[in-house]
Design brief:
Blueprint: E1 6-10, H1 17-27, E2 31-33, E3 36-38, E4 52-54, H2 57-65, E5 69-75, E6 78-83, H3 84-92, E7 96-100, H4 103-112, E8 117-122, H5 126-136, H6 141-156, E9 163-166, H7 170-192
Parallel strand pairs: 1-7, 1-8, 2-7, 3-4, 8-9
Antiparallel strand pairs: 3-6, 5-6
Helix pairs in contact: 1-7, 5-6
Length: about 190
């Protein structure tokens, strides 16, 4: 059995990344999502090991000290990280594993695992991103302004990714991402030969 590949997908909030990744999971039988660990409390309906591995701050800090994460960060007073062992187990079983993480996390993973395939999802334009964020109806104008400012900073980081996909249409973007994975795997197989 061939070992799977690790794929990092990053994008600004509102770019449609989650929708693309859901579609990609439907297209690829061999793809698995990496479950992160967090110190935040579970929300209604969330289960330990399904949405997140819910741990205490002390447990999380012990995992950091043991180098048990591929990447980790603090966000809104909670800690989040990608457990190395869970990812490695799936890769060894032959599954391709994707991480849905921010650009800082992507840099951490690429530093630890240079062979990781990194993909950045861009919105078609900042105007379209603003329209999508406003259309959600979940954020006030100030929050949208902050999200757009953050998106501009994140989009500038796309030069550090292996591939960039513009999400102007979900089906096309998901098919492009699937094709990138196929091409990357073919290249790795050729290099190993």
């Amino acid at each position: 059995m061939n070992k799977g590949i690790l794929i990092v997908v990053s994008a600004p909030s509102g770019s449609g990344k989650s929708t693309i990744l859901r579609r990609l999971l439907a297209l690829r039988d061999n793809l698995r999502f990496s479950v992160s660990a967090t110190t935040r409390a579970p929300r209604a309906g969330e289960e330990h090991g399904r949405e997140y591995f819910f741990v205490t701050r002390d447990e999380f800090q012990a995992m950091v000290a043991a180098d048990a994460f591929l990447e980790h960060a603090e966000f809104v007073e909670n800690l989040y990280g990608t457990p190395r062992d869970a990812v490695e187990r799936q890769l060894e079983q032959g599954f391709d594993v994707y991480l849905d993480i921010d650009v800082q996390g992507a840099r951490q993973v690429k530093a630890k695992r240079p062979e990781t395939l990194t993909v950045f999802i861009l919105p078609p334009s900042m105007e379209e991103l603003e329209r999508r964020l406003t259309g959600r109806g979940t954020d006030d104008p100030e929050t949208i302004r902050r999200r757009l400012s953050q998106a501009e900073r994140e989009c500038a980081e796309r030069v550090h990714f292996d591939y960039v996909i513009v999400n102007d249409e979900v089906e096309r973007a998901a098919a492009e991402l699937s094709g990138i994975i196929d091409g990357y795997k073919a290249r790795l197989a050729q290099e190993a030969y």
